[in-house]
Amino acid sequence: MMKSRPMAAFVSFVGCLMDIQNEIFKQALCITDPIYIDDVIFEDGELHIHLNFYKGSEFPCPACNTMGCKAWDTYDKTWRHLNFFQYKCFLHFPSPRINCPDCGVHHSPHRGHDQEADLHCCLKLL
Ligand SMILES: [Zn+2]
Q: In terms of pTM, does the model score above 0.85?
């Protein structure tokens, strides 16, 4: 079904608003490429920010620091962030396991450690 012109314009307008919203959260969280804000959901008094990384991104190996490793697969991680005003805030991220050509597949180097330290380390590495 084809969209009418007003509907197409509205969809385009909403898309622009979402881009602006995501850019604000990206800057506020100091997120840099290849990570981006995939979605922001405010529901039941909680803010859920969904992060992702661009397909084909390259990462350093957490074991030997070889650069340019691809993601092997991902596992979903959630971090409790500081409140957004009075509302709880959660960050969701499909954390990649890294496929290193020199030493194999590795999980994020700090999996299971302090969640906030893990997030900052993960975002810094990526
Ligand atoms: Zn390696």
A: no
